[in-house]
Write a structure and sequence with these properties.
alpha/beta; Alpha-Beta Plaits; six-stranded mixed beta sheet
């Protein structure tokens, strides 16, 4: 146990490290913003993040769990073991000039950050460096592990990490995520999900001359769509099912022999999402039967709901209160209001106060692949204020502030809160004891069983063609100044 005065000295040192690197944190976040890389293709982003950690004394293993753009960086030794994990992928067709309160792509139709995962990764790395500097200076025992998780927008990588035992020795985990507020929560926060490709196989023929000789794979996709539409009446009210047709044929006069639809099935529980997916599979088999085609099913991702831990939330909240909300300028607030108006969000400006910690949060329908982590180890969440409140993610408006002083100030605040939380967990055994006790109560009799098929391989080719198309057009906009932490 560390005395109160020693703990304050340690934490002050770490916060000072983050403050001294305010400009470098901004450079790191901006570099990732302009990379704008899609899930599984975050080669520039992952390399920069891993390099930054290696340059600051972490031992870095790249390519973990078969993901070329994943990594695990480790500092220290022995227990306790604290893990931090986050994502750094962008979204398709969301290129947006930062600091502009109207839709203005950097590169037309290109991928871009429209949520703030660039900020997530900058906070994770900066907070980790600040915590490690304190560990080294004050001889703090324990291990800090930093996980880079690709492909969050497709809900991919962290279930593989859990399946492969990468969290087996972890005592507590922390996830950082951009927000319009400075907050933490506890309870069930996100839905479970199973995402899969359904590919129908038939036989081609001339659509005008001999259509009776064909077995139409696209017809099967349409019939599956109709079947799921009919199923919606009988789904529980909090279930979700949505899709895109990724391949529907090549030209109208050739009846398609192959067609693929990508479905995501969501529910508040892992078993609920699993059951809904199985109903979707049976509908697909029925569609294949009706069209005399066959169907293959490839699960791309399968994640548990996200649960955040009360004991860790209490530690995070104290650090948020210690750091405090950034001081926004009148110009920053005016930009936020202009953007909120343009994005048709409530015009409230920037948040001025930290959010108090209340009781268990209400579960929402989005998903995040960190859910699997949260059922095998206590997991806390740090939401930091690097985006404009009320502007919906995955919309051009959510990209407009991500390389501005609003994002930069929020990143510094988030890095400080993260570093302080890590150090609290390493130096005060009572915090971990409370986290583990509340975790045991929270999960109750639930037994974690992966939704991910045991033989599933990472879809490392996902988004490759899109990034190969747009990367040469995006590269001229990359930031030239490399961050270097002092």
């Amino acid at each position: 146990m560390t005395s109160a005065s020693d703990a304050a000295t340690i934490k002050t040192f770490a916060l000072d490290v983050a403050e001294a690197n305010r400009a470098e944190i901004a450079k790191l976040s901006d570099a990732l913003f302009y990379f704008g890389e899609l899930g599984m293709q975050e080669h520039e982003s992952a390399a920069l993040l891993a390099d930054m950690l290696a340059e600051n004394g972490f031992s870095v293993e790249r390519g973990i769990s078969g993901f070329p753009t994943a990594f695990c960086a480790t500092a220290g030794s022995g227990g306790p073991v604290i893990a931090v994990h986050t994502e750094y992928d962008a979204n398709p067709n969301n290129s947006q000039a930062s600091g502009v309160a109207e839709q203005k792509p950097i590169v037309q139709d290109a991928p871009g950050h429209c949520e703030g995962h660039n900020c997530n990764a900058a906070v994770m790395v900066a907070g980790a460096i600040a915590a490690k500097r304190a560990m080294d200076k004050f001889g703090i025992k324990g291990t800090l592990k930093i996980f880079g998780a690709p492909g969050e927008e497709q809900l991919i990588s962290r279930p593989y990490f859990v399946r492969d035992g990468l969290f087996a020795d972890v005592d507590a985990a922390l996830h950082v995520h951009v927000s319009g507020a400075f907050d933490t929560i506890h309870g069930l926060t996100h839905f479970a999900a199973v995402s899969a490709y359904f590919t129908f196989h038939g036989e081609t023929s001339h659509a005008s001359v001999t259509p009776w000789k064909a077995r139409d794979a696209l017809d099967a996709v349409v019939l599956m769509d109709m079947g799921v539409a009919q199923m919606r009446e009988h789904m529980e009210t909090d279930m979700r099912a949505h899709r895109v047709i990724t391949h529907g044929g090549d030209q109208p006069n050739v009846i398609p022999a192959k067609a693929t639809v990508w479905w995501t099935f969501r529910g508040p529980t892992a078993e609920g999402a699993r059951a809904l997916f199985e109903r979707g599979r049976r509908i697909a088999e029925g569609a294949a039967m009706m069209t005399d085609t066959t169907v293959t099913v490839e699960v791309m991702s399968a994640v548990w709901p996200v649960r955040t831990n009360q004991g860790l939330a209490e530690v995070v909240q104290r650090n948020i209160e210690l750091v405090g909300m950034p001081a926004w300028t009148e110009d920053e607030d005016a930009f936020a209001r202009k953007l909120q108006a343009a994005a048709k969000a409530g015009v409230t400006g920037l948040t001025r106060k930290i959010t108090p910690l209340t009781g268990p949060t209400r579960q929402r329908s989005p998903s995040n692949d960190c859910g699997d982590v949260s059922w095998v180890v206590p997991m806390g969440r740090i939401g930091f204020p690097s985006n404009v409140p009320g502007v919906a993610f995955h919309h051009w408006g959510a990209g407009a502030a991500l390389a501005t002083s609003i994002a930069h100030k929020g990143c510094v605040a988030g890095a400080k809160a993260l570093a302080g939380t890590v150090l609290d967990l390493l130096t005060e055994p009572a915090h971990l004891a409370r986290a583990k006790a509340t975790f045991a109560t929270e999960i109750g009799e639930t037994k974690y069983r992966p939704l991910l098929p045991p033989d599933q391989k990472p879809p490392i080719a996902l988004n490759r063609e899109l990034m190969e198309q747009f990367r040469p057009l995006m590269r001229p906009h990359y930031r030239k100044e490399r961050p270097r932490f002092v």
